[in-house]
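Listing S7. Sequence submitted for prediction.
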Amino acid sequence: VAEIFEPRDLRLPWQWAEDNVWVDKTSAFPGRYRASTAPWTKELMEVFADNEVREVSVMCSAQSGKTQALMVLLAWAIVEDPGPAMWVLAAQDEAEDFMQTRLLPTLMECPSIRRMMPRERSGKRKGTIDFASMPLMVRGAGSPSKLQSVPIRWLILDEVRNYPTGALEMVKKRVRAQWNSKVVQISTPHFENDAVHQSFLDGDQRRFEWPCQACGAFFTPLWEHVEWEESERTKTPEGKWLFEPLSETIRLKCPTCG
């Protein structure tokens, strides 16, 4: 009864998550969630909670904490702002594996969500969880019939570069009936001007910048800023890299002060 009348937590999702989310053991940083581990995901979480923003497109590198950020946002939505949610990956078998090995363990570690889990077996079917306040579906983009279901408020599109042709356009139609719907599209890009790149260009093109530890200037890290040592210590006479000593020489060069 107390939970029914409890006021909504008005903190930003990443602030809420630091008290409510535990990272699963598949992560390099398991345990209690800390936003400082991947600070570039904070703004993603802030705009996710902003109802004036209808679509978010994130173009990023691999292994940059993006899937973990999405799981945090989904947990926040289930507890603080529920609505029909769908998480879409490229293939159905990939979706089922992700749900069992990463998503469910993360959700079950959140006390508020654990209490909301349906007790009947029918409420937790293959690829679907029927919470009392909302349904959650995890689908593969290669199964059109599974994408054409109920209207969706929270639509999470993960690694869209691997989607079959036409799947992205089809699944985005699921949010038309919800006035406060949100589409979050996140992926590493493949080619210049592909669907991922074009979606990023259609937005306001925000970029995460690092402050230089020496001069304090902010800059977006590019490959041209990365330097390393090429010597007898890091490379054999036959031209084979010695990765352990090489890794000690890799650094990011500030374009302002060098």
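Caption to Listing S7: primary sequence and predicted structure tokens for the chain studied. The chain has a mean pLDDT of 89. DSSP finds nine helices and 13 strands in the chain.
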